[in-house]
Amino acid sequence: MIEARGLTKHYGDKTAVHDLSFQVRPGVVTGFLGPNGSGKSTTMRMILGLDTPSAGEVTVSGRPYRQLPNAPRHVGALLDAKAVHGGRSARQHLMCLAQLAGVPARRVDDVLGMVGLREVAGKRSKNFSLGMGQRLGIAAALLGDPQVLLFDEPVNGLDPEGIHWVRNLMRGLASEGRTVFVSSHLMSEMALTADHLIVIGRGQLMADLSVREFIARNSTAYALVRTPAEDGAAQKLTAALGEAGGQVAGGPDGALRVTGLELPRISDIAHAADVRLWELSPHSASLEEAYMRLTQGAVDYRSTQDPRGGPAQPQPYGGAPVAGGGPVPAGAPFAPPNPYAGPPAPAHNPYAAPNPAPNPAPNPYAVPQPAQQPAPQPVAAMPPQPVSPPAAQQVAAVPAQAADPQTQTPPQTPPRPEAPGAPAAAAGARPTAEKPTDAEDA
């Protein structure tokens, strides 16, 4: 048996566990529940002597864990399935633990067969999947054949067959008179495995009850009533049930949820009101619903919906969310929200000034068009130029110039006067040298 009395643990100015007292009795599977950060792992570490309590004490079979002779033969635990040397095989890992606890070597093969790892016993543990690692951790807890067993999330990573095997294993160990303490977040699995529940929130005890009593105290059973889709049938029955002291709430599919009245009484009221019933069935809340109702004020980490849809709205029991929050009215179809839908279009404002048409964005893939050349302009006719006077007159008008010493321009030599009767040279034309005659050559 495990017994905690006034257990408290501080980490600096943070209190992980405060004045926690409970008992884990042999012969039953005790579930250990609580939100993330509630102190479950810290409590288990103090039970196993890994953390020292700041106040209070916890004992296993009447002694603190550290005072137990050969503790692995009395207590088996799985807290972290990854606490294995990755270079060792499954058999080598268990063999080391067996030698430390004085367990015979044949026990190693026995537990390997129990957890289904005999065929991979020589494989290195670093190559194990998450589920195989969980099986190896369970084998290590069972190695010493202890009377007290602690498991922290034992079904994490297991397939459905493995979960079913763990469930039967826990119940089988408890039926042998052993103390089984299991921590888990899977409410559906705990409802099938555990017989008793210890629930903590923010380090304090919230419930210490059997599973059946826990559900009854933290939920409300109701009767589901369905009537034909005739005009006024549901309203007529609702009024009759209300007069008899029942509370009626509409469901999303048109059914009625009735509380405060037994099923035979509901049937008699419907018969007296001349209303036919298509369905009249009892419904009780699940462990998950009861747990959520109890711990909703002790949750430290809450999520919100997509920012485009706004924060999550709390829903009443049995109601379904709608676009504006709150439950769906009776008879209204429920459509699940689309997480990928864009924001709603803004409402049209008839008084808003019209916006100018925006300039279209340039197309980066458009073929560039050649630039247009300007049209050629007509050339204006040149006026006639005056005819220059004869070259002889120009030469006579220009006096001989001496060579400029700075520019080194040679002096211009006046042209040879033409013979009388020769045609006048054009203005600006260079005179050509005359060909010597035969008399001059002689």
Automatic annotation (TrEMBL):
Positions with biased composition (Low complexity): 307-320, 390-410, 421-431
One MF term in the entry's GO annotations: ATP binding
Residue ranges with Pro residues bias: 334-389, 411-420
Keywords associated with the record: ATP-binding, Nucleotide-binding, Transport
Bias (Basic and acidic residues) ranges: 432-442
ABC transporter domain mapped to chain residues: 2-227
SMART domains given in the database record: AAA
Residues annotated as signal peptide: none
Highest taxon of the lineage: Bacteria
Entry-linked InterPro entries: AAA+_ATPase, ABC_transporter-like_ATP-bd, P-loop_NTPase
Region annotation (Disordered) ranges: 301-442
Database matches in SUPFAM superfamilies: P-loop containing nucleoside triphosphate hydrolases
Family note: Belongs to the ABC transporter superfamily.
Name of the molecule in the record: ABC transporter ATP-binding protein
